[in-house]
Amino acid sequence: MIIFEIIGRKRMRHFEIGDRVEIADDVGSTSQSRIGVIIAASEILPHQVFTIRLADGNESRVSAAQLRIQPPMMADMIFDTTISPAPVGLRGSVGGRHMRFVSGDLDIHLKLKEAEFSRHLFGQLNFDQLTEAAFLVTLLHDGKPHATTATNPAGEFELREIPSGNMMLEILIPSRRIFAKFDAAG
Predict the structure, then answer these.
(1) Segment 55-94, tens digit of pLDDT
(2) Taking a C-beta distance cutoff of 8 angstroms, is the pair 157, 137 a contact?
(3) Is 142 left (phi over 0), alpha (psi -120 to 50) or beta?
(4) What residue spans define the domains of the chain?
(5) pLDDT over 90 percentage in the chain
C-alpha cells in the first residue's frame, strides 16, 4: 500500500514491505532487472532504505527516492473459452479455461486448469520485441496479493492454488503496470 504524506508543499511517498515497485535509478546496479518486491526496510539517516527482491532473483538496496510505482493500465480481454470455444491448434488446448488479453505490444495468454484438489494458472507474456528479461506477475484475489512469481526467459509463469472469486493479474514490466481482470468461478 502506498501512503502519501504532504510536507509543506511537497508530497512524500512512503513504501511498505510487499509493495511491487520499479527502481527508477539503477546507477551501480549489477542486476538486469529493475522490478521487484520490497522485502525489508531500514532507516539510514536521512533516508529510508529498502531491500528489493528483483524479478531475476537478485536483491538490491535503494532509497525511496529511487523507487516508483507506475500508474495502472487495464488489459483488454479478447478471448475466453467460457464464452467461445477454443480454436483448433491452440497450444495446450486440452482441458482448462483459456483466456487472452492485450495491452499495447503485450499479449497475455492464460490457462486456468483444474488439478486434483486445486487450480493452477499457467501464463505466458509475449511482446512485439524479443526480450529475455524476467517480469513480475502477481495474482490479486479480491484486490489483495495472493501470490507473486517471475516469468522465465520465454515469458512463461505458473501460479498454484488459485482460489475462487474475482481475480486480477498485475504484470509489472519496466515503465508499465498492467492489470488483467477475470473471474475464477468455483
Answers:
(1) 989 999 988 888 998 889 999 999 898 887 655 555 554 5
(2) yes
(3) left
(4) 3-68, 72-184
(5) 43
pLDDT in tens, 27-59: 545 667 889 999 999 887 777 899 999 998 999
The C-alpha cell at 37 is: 518486491
Topology adopted by domain 3-68: SH3 type barrels. (2.30.30)
Task: Give me the residues paired with residue 114 across strands.
Answer: 119
CA distance 146 to 136: 13
E strand segments, the chain: 3-7, 10-14, 20-23, 35-44, 47-54, 59-63, 67-68, 72-74, 76-80, 97-103, 106-114, 119-127, 136-141, 144-150, 156-159, 165-173, 176-184
CATH architecture of 72-184: Sandwich (2.60)
